[in-house]
# Entry
Amino acid sequence: MLGVLLLAPAWAHAQATRTWVSGVGDDANPCSRTAPCRTLAGALPKTATGGEIDVLDPAALDGSDDFAAPAVAPVTLVIDKSITIDGGGRYVAAFGGVPMGDSIVVNLTSPGTVILRNLQLNGFAGTGSNGIRVVSSANVVLDHVDVAGYAQNCLLVDAGAGGALVDIASSTFSNCSTGVANRAAAAVNLGGDSAVVLNTVAGVSSNNPLGAVYFFNSNTRSNTQNTDLTTYVSGSSASVSGGSVGCAFANQQFVAPNAISRTLPVAVGGPAAAGFQFQTTNCGPGATVTVTLNYAQAMPASTVLYKFGPATPGATQSTWFPLPGAVLSADRKGFTYSLTDNGIGDSNGAIGFIDDPVLPLVPLPPSIPTLSHWALALLGVLVSAMMVWERRRQRARIPMRSA
# Structure
């Protein structure tokens, strides 16, 4: 037995911080650069937490292709720890899709970050259920990831993934039933020139009251329904006027509060309605636009429209502040306000573009003044002194009895 242990390869005793996979590798290998593994699922247990798996050549790295040797059955990649998976050159690491299953499942048992970069996932016209499925609270980064052709969702943040944060950059989600679906009390940041297109049910869907999808410099278009955010937009509408001919919204969305900022101003009691954010197009440099928001339910009379952005022109820090000039409608179901390109509240420093995250908030009621412990102690001393003085005064008024 001792001899067997001494002859065991080094990778059997310790995980490597960096491993490699190849279409001509073998999962029996140590996943080194010169002896790579065949699949990402085979390399993951040989890679240390926080480590990185790199791809050496184009291949279907769930083993779903039948032209690479050795051929293996396609498997779901279940990621249970912090890891970076990098396909190297863009789109060289491909997944063929597990029949009736998910290609990648993120299921961390402790807080951590999963980074997926330069990957292409293809469900082959609906044979796979979900491209990427997040089922636990985790930070997930998708950078240059293309997902297409899954029967259900290209990306699914499952209901049990409360607290998850998914940051997306330069990625596409297409030809699935739903491109990006958020079912959790989680935040999805869809930005960095990402696109959600040609999905048969919805482009982006979010139906959890505490969940949010934040759109920034991304395109959601050419889907059967571009957005399905029924929790927040039911009965709500927005319009913009002013600017040059053709001035209009781009990427406008009613969103949950944490899609704008993870923290709210300390002087407010809470949101009165959904937040709203947009970017203008074709409005012209230096334009001033007027935005009108309409909600289905009346808001409290004390509601104030707060802006998250630069409080002064040219400011680089974004903060919460009451938006000057915002007017609550007479029926308390809407706000009207104005913004100027690169003026107060414009979150986009580029000339000709106005970004506008706002949120109706209810201020806290005035607090009742209270005394500190020292003030209470001093008050007690004063009361005691007054009682002593009053007793002495009463004694002085009682006449002395004669002998």
Observations:
- Residues 1-8, 66-71 have pLDDT under 50 and may be disordered.
- Residues 150 and 375 are 67 Å apart (CA to CA).
- The longest helix spans residues 373-397.
